[in-house]
Amino acid sequence: MDRPGVFDVHAHLAPGAAARERLLDVMAQNGIDRAVVVAGGAVDPDTLSRQIIEGGHTEADADNASVLAACEQSGGTLVPFYFANPHREGADYRADGQRFAGLKLAPAVHGVSLLDDRTLAVVAQAQRFGHATYLHCLPKPGFGVRDLVALAAEFPTGHFVLGHAGVGDLDLHGIDLIKPVDTILFETSGGYTAVVDAAINRLGADRVVFGTEYPLQHPSVELAKYRALALPDHQWHKVAWHNARRLIGERDS
What we know:
By secondary structure, the chain is of the alpha/beta class. The chain contains eleven helices and eight strands.
């Protein structure tokens, strides 16, 4: 499949066939052709909200096996990223990660900073697999966008995605911090339209990717932001399709 479509680079999937079918139905209803999916439910939303503000963490593993099974039954529509637990120092990812298409880290969930040796071990394994690393940043030392830039400098041949439009919903500063680092892409779920517009103007459409954060955010909301921006087709096709395929190692024919 190489025609320009819509590729969501960040959705979550709960275990079970019903969750997979709900996701596929929502995608079809909203004209989304493919999606990168990661396991959901490592912590519940209320706990995650508290940890983002007050700190704290879990050492629980995400259900990567269920995500892989759902993706294998989707005919390529769903693309699995491995949700690694840095408390395992990469052992889980080394064992099973090759069957996935990329790596997901959530410092707000597991509470391990971006330059911690455990994070470095997991990202080093991603490099060996040829995987890009998707992660979130937080407004505290060790977890910020500046720390992501430092992490990318440790792995200059790697590729990274700054998720959820950076820190908060108005992270214009984060856009400027990653601008000199071509290996960091900017995923736009949760950000204001002004932030999405700034990212495209400052980074270029080649470095911006569309994501939804389904099911916490309905895909129609994220698509509406782009309709409001009325991007020219050549930019929209990069943001919504070509960049995502490049991220997972596919090439347009």
